[in-house]
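DATA SHEET
Item: assembly model
Revision: 1
Owner: S.N.
Input lines:
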Amino acid sequence: MARRVDVDETLSPVRIPASVLHELCNHALETHPEECCGLLIGNGAERYLRLVRCRNIMTALHQKDPDTYPRDGRAAFYMSEHDYLKALDEAEAAGQRVTAVYHSHVGAGAYLSEMDLEYAEQPLFPFPDADQIVVPIYERNVQGIAVFRRRAGEYAPGHRVQPIDP
Ligand SMILES: [Zn+2]
């Protein structure tokens, strides 16, 4: 059976600045019907301080090599290495760090799929300690964003999110 990590509705929600949630929604809407992806950057005071968009290059990979990449950007994401390395450099220069990787699910709920888990568990995955945030989008509506924390290399069941107003 395929592995998958779901949301646990009994867990307390994770607080995320309203402006960051707004940007997550906008990114998912703009790339629809393809998945969006990117990083959340934080510091000691605020874990989810700001968002950096990265390009999802899965469609380009799929077109070049459909055997290795059987899905396109509507059903999967592959973060542009150029984009995330640049974001990582800028964060480190500012004394900040990458705290989460996010992507959207088009027409599907907030869970980590077998593919999401494989991607995040590969030895070269650049953010082994980062949380995962999934942004479900149905038609033109984003609903049910969830945060999956990583503990001892494994993703724990997901939390819903709650906006922090400035
Ligand atoms: Zn996914």
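QC remark: The first strand starts at residue 14 and ends at 17.
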